[in-house]
Fold this protein.
Amino acid sequence: MADTDNYSSSLRKPRHVARKFQARPQREGNGAVVRRSIGRFELRYFDPFLVLDEFSVCAPAGFPDHPHRGFETVTYMLEGALTHEDFEGHKGTIKAGDLQWMTAGRGIVHSEMPAGQGVAKGLQLWVNLSSRNKMIEPKYQELQSKDIACTNKNGIEVRVIAGESMGINSPVYTRTPTMYLDFTLKPLAHLCQPIPPTWNAFLYVLEGEGVFGVEKSGSIGTHHLLLLSHGDGLEVWNKSVKPLRFVLIGGEPLGEPVAQLGPFVMNTEEEIDQTINDFQYCENGFEKAKFWRSEAMIASEG
């Protein structure tokens, strides 16, 4: 993005901020605090996105053993570390800057607990899966911070979690086509980022404040979720004296009915009933849940 004027002129229909929400703290899991912006009563679903949480947790609080079916969870660490383990035997720790893209598919039971002392902070995004992908086998894509595609030019740094920006691509495969970009703009920097016109897109401000969509609009600061109008891209200006950091996320809408009960997301209420039955009787993807407990759960009971 060496010439922002050329990028700007290539946007025939720049997106603007259509709606704005401030994510407020709430309790989740076992003593954890999250700021939920998607998945709350004002915004239940933003196709294909089900939940966006900015979480902050320190031991002994966390997210102990719990199930998922029918979607993907994307965990991006901002500070500290989080240890994950599941009933398939997958276990690991993701640290600041690391990514875990988990496809729950037909079913997974796992735990997510802070590793070591201090606060673990990050973002967790839930991406819905189409009906044809809801019952696939669980899968993981994990990247350490050093392996995430990153570039820096004209006062703009981008980490490409998914999709493409400034000429670099992420290796992450997205079953539901998705872009996930972590931008940091130095003071006076100006960004122009293309977005597929048919995709839904939003951004979430992590640090500082910026002007989004329309240059003459007011600045918007941390913990705000901005839903973007349709168009072919977004312009952002940092007119402050401090760095601006935000994530820009977009996805291709599925256009399918959504039936959700907590961590289960299907297309019909009948499928939700079947999922509850499968989980209760440890069938159809939940067989290993019958005898499994995480090491963190066992330790807490000892």
Remarks:
- The radius of gyration is 19 Å.
- Residues 1-9 have pLDDT under 50 and may be disordered.
- The helical segments are 4-10, 269-280, 295-301.
- DSSP finds three helices and 25 strands in the chain.
